[in-house]
Design goal:
Length: 298
């Protein structure tokens, strides 16, 4: 084969190769790239059309950030790294000094932890004039440390007058309080300040419109509504009475304005029926257990 023919064949093969590659690029590769470019253009066009919404979202997030930063800079609660029971009791005692007479008994009910924060659970039970109790709750909610009242049961108790004391109405309370703590060091001190003067009260909602005319407790019987149940065994219950004395009661025993109708050792409770000037009421007390205590069934 001559040199000329070989060159012609090589050029033909090269031409066919170039033609095939060009056809592939033209017929397949370029249309695919064109579709991708069209999609990108369409996406960019949609984003450009959505610019007002993006601007609104940006403005909303900026306002939220500004408000959050302002609240952070003006926070007025201290959240310690740990909450110690003795310190919480001392804190409650300080609030009582600010509030006036409040009889209070505290029981620790355990801890709840959630990573960087948590809270101790306390059961507070006692009695106080409503105005003092109101101030105590106000200081508890508004003072520097973060305490939250989770549940609260209130009851108005009328105290009959005696030769030494005038008649009065006390509020008995039984509530659960959460004392918060956090490992975030910045939360242990706050920068904001606020007035901590409680608003004055004009009405005591627990003052009865008409006195029930109950007799004075001249025999110093157990006032079941003002007592705290400490222990229950078969046929007998032990209470701390209104004068902080431990008293033992059995079913049928007389209490102030009534008598004991039921002692339940398995449920850790006692029930009494009272006659308040013709109004019959049943009052139930339960033992307040700490985290390591359980009801012993017998």
């Amino acid at each position: 084969m001559s040199y000329k023919i070989r060159n012609s064949i090589a050029l033909g093969v090269l031409f066919l190769l170039i033609l095939g590659v060009g056809t592939y690029i033209r017929a397949f590769n370029l249309p695919r790239k064109a579709k991708q470019i069209e999609k990108e253009v369409k996406k960019i066009d949609e984003e450009l059309q959505n610019t007002p919404n993006l601007v609104n979202e940006f403005n909303d997030l900026s306002a939220l950030l500004s408000d959050t930063q302002k609240r952070w800079e003006n926070r007025n609660k201290d959240i310690p790294p740990v909450d110690v029971t003795s310190q919480s009791y001392a804190y409650f005692s300080r609030l009582i000094d600010l509030s006036g007479y409040v009889k209070l008994d505290m029981v620790y009910n355990g801890v709840q932890s959630f990573g960087s924060y948590g809270y101790n659970v306390y059961n507070l039970k006692g009695e106080a004039p409503f105005e003092n109790f109101y101030r105590f709750i106000w200081y508890l909610e508004n003072d520097r440390k973060l305490y939250k009242v989770q549940t609260m049961v209130l009851r108005g108790v009328e105290i009959a007058p005696t030769e030494k004391d005038e008649g009065k109405v006390l509020v008995t309370f039984d509530m659960v309080v959460h004392a918060y703590f956090s490992s975030v060091a910045e939360l242990s001190t706050s920068l904001g300040e606020r007035s901590i003067t409680p608003n004055p009260l004009t009405v005591d909602p627990f003052t009865p419109g008409i006195s029930s005319g109950i007799p004075a407790n001249v025999r110093e019987l157990v006032e079941i509504e003002r007592s705290d149940l400490k222990a229950v065994i078969t046929g007998k219950a032990y209470l701390m009475d209104q004068a902080n004395n431990i008293r033992a009661l059995q079913e049928g025993d007389e209490v102030y304005l009534g008598y004991v109708t039921k002692i339940d050792p398995e449920g850790g409770r006692i029930e009494a029926t009272l006659n308040k000037g013709g109004i019959i009421e049943k009052v139930e007390l339960k033992i307040r257990y700490g985290p390591l205590q359980t009801v012993v069934k017998k």
